Queue: 2 jobs
Job 1
Amino acid sequence: MKGLELIKKTMNMEMVERIPWVPFVGVHAGHLLGISATEYLHSAEKMVTGVNKAIKLYQPDGIPVMFDLQVEAEALGCQLAWAEDNPPAVISHPLAEGVKLSDLKVPAPTDGRIPMALEITRQLRHQHKDLALYGLITGPFTLALHLYGTEIFMQMMVAPDETHQLLRFTTNVANAMASYYINAGADVVAIVDPMTSQIDPL
């Protein structure tokens, strides 16, 4: 059974011959090429090469096309600090620095590094028909934290309506990113929202 078929059957809760193998390879693929995370994340050609090397080495059923939870934030005006061994970190928060939420627009597929992510998806789709491609998008709360900074935790208590407006906006960004990835050929869209671990589920 091919990887894509195996993952589709698994997600449909059908019987499968084995558990699918989906390593969430990110800048590790750059390490496989012997280049820095910064160099890797700025080149569609190098990312395609790195993912292909990971595919050859790990023989997965599915794999992310790119793992960088700062893509949307960068397209929305956040400044990034780049690193040798890790994805970049957000170091500025527009909504805490005078920008109004009404000034922000959902990024287009031509903004920031989004075109690069989509090009990688298209190339990998063409090269690997039977592999499940994962488009990873920044979850709404993590993106809200990027835009507002840690003050969002206080904002949640003192201005819940404004927080809801922000989360509606970041949800719209996530929906747009999902559609971009799907149109480029991704089979699975994974919402990666690690900062939800910092808040109460209620």
Note: The longest helix spans residues 160-184.
Job 2
Amino acid sequence: MARRNLVLLVPIFGFLLAGSLCGCGHKDNLSAGPQVPVVRVSAPIQRQVTDYDYFDGRTDAVDYVEMRARVTGYLDKINFQPGKEVKKGELLFQIDPRPYKAQLDQTESQVLLNQANLKLALANLARARQIAQTPGAVSQEELDKAAAEAASAEAAVKSAKANVESAALNFKFTEVISPITGIAGRNLLTVGNLVIQDSTLLTTIVSVDPMYAYFDVDERTMLRVQKLIREGKVISLEKAEKDKSKIPMQFGLADEGDDYPHEGVLDFVNNQIDISTGTIQVRAILANPLLGDSDSRLLTPGLFLRVRIPIGKPHQALLVPQAALGTDQGVKFLYVVNDKKVVEYRPVNLGAQQADSLQVVEPVKIVRTKEGVRQAQAAEQGEDSLRPSDRIIVGGLQRVRSGMTVDPKAAADARK
């Protein structure tokens, strides 16, 4: 009987032991609690910055010439290499000059003939006047006729000389000369083709140094800059020209990433806004010298540019990584970890974007309430939403929210 009772007690004891072990395990899990998320934090960077506005632009030649012949004739010679630089006054094309040389010779001969006629007419007039001193020897009609013939001969000489000048110009125009220094395009006709006066396009030439850069400024930016000009924080182009100073700009090419290593000077703002785009055209002048000992240059007309214009003078600012910024219904904010390791919501205003993936942020006034942090109203006295000593969360914003307790790690340590 005792043995039977012992057999019955063994499963019961085992069941109680198992329950006890399960209870102990559950207690251990509760004591561990939920895991606190680790976040990367960093202090805002404080340094002197310059605010910039950014635009896209295109280069354009200062001078652009379409070369057309000023006389009609057959193309005789091509004296330049397409795609290479030509100098001002250099001979580019030669049109067959023989017809125009013959015309010039003919007009020069006509001048000699008319000069001979003039000499005879003047001699006849002189004799008529001398004879007219004897009363009744020459009638007044004959005297007037001799004077008219002399005047007509003189006019014929002048007309012939004008024809010589015209023929000389046509003969000269058989040589097509470059009016500027620049890069010549390809020849659009080959030797032997007929060239029509003022119609046939022979080639194009574009100047290369200096060069223009055109870009469009949107209406909001224009109004903001005008306000800064009225406040004396930015100099206008008119005042810069009057003071013989310059407004600088920087630009970068399509293959230069976020760098703006080249400089130019603003020189023109258009007189009206394009109503179809809501922008106003602005122009800068860019130097484009030869690169080293080569015959190549940095810029070509029509090249895409990234343009950066400084707005105002350098000033101290707070900068944060762009990845640290969040957006809540159009309001930009940062998450800051306070001394109690609790995440706080901090609204900020954005300044100018920097080339090193940093963003200038401007603190706003905030008020602390039971519900959390909110932006101060106009009549409220608050505190700055961001200070240089704050610890901002720079990574993993999706895993945190305001009021959460976190384990902050310096950005460099958190990557280990």
Note: The two ends are 68 Å apart (CA to CA).
